[in-house]
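Morning run. Coffee first, then this:
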Amino acid sequence: MNKSRLRQLALARRKNVSARIFALLNESAQQEFMDFITSFPQPRIIMSFQPIVERKEVQMETIHQTLWSLGHKLCFPRVVGEDSMLAYLMQKEDTFITSAWGIKEPNPLMHTKITATDIDLIIIPLLAFDSKGNRVGYGKGFYDRFLMDCRPDAIKIGICLDEAVQRIDDVEAHDIPLDLCITPTGIHLFDGFYQKNPFDSEFKP
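And here it is:
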């Protein structure tokens, strides 16, 4: 199935899911993530995101508080212009501002910009993904362009309420796949994860 169709189906499912089912899926995905991250080498610089509530993205507040409590540094994206993102470091007591698109973002006047190559791990919101770690977002390409500037050894983690589809048909050469994806039912590991072996003592940020 192609990205456009997968995106359409995922958005329709999210629109129609009941509040009760969403809460259960969301809680399970958060727990799976926290079970994983507590074993991760520390400390790291992690880029996360603020969920878009009306799109029923995984709620991240508990995850963020856990990451900070474990000693990780967190940065968050800010959309710049029409085609790019920048990342800014934030502390747990900091507040976000709301963009023109209704997304919570760092205030560039108040927070420190960080280069993409300094980031060790990127948490990416998803609509869909396949068995090889190829991903489907909202189609704007912000993460595609940002990931191109990240280090090759940076760990790319998807977080998604849906399970993997067998195959995304229209993957392109420039598409950057996930290393793993976390869903309400567990953790999906892909080739990149094993190649990077982030739990190995030789892994360096």
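The helical segments are 3-16, 19-37, 61-69, 142-148, 191-196. Good start to the day.
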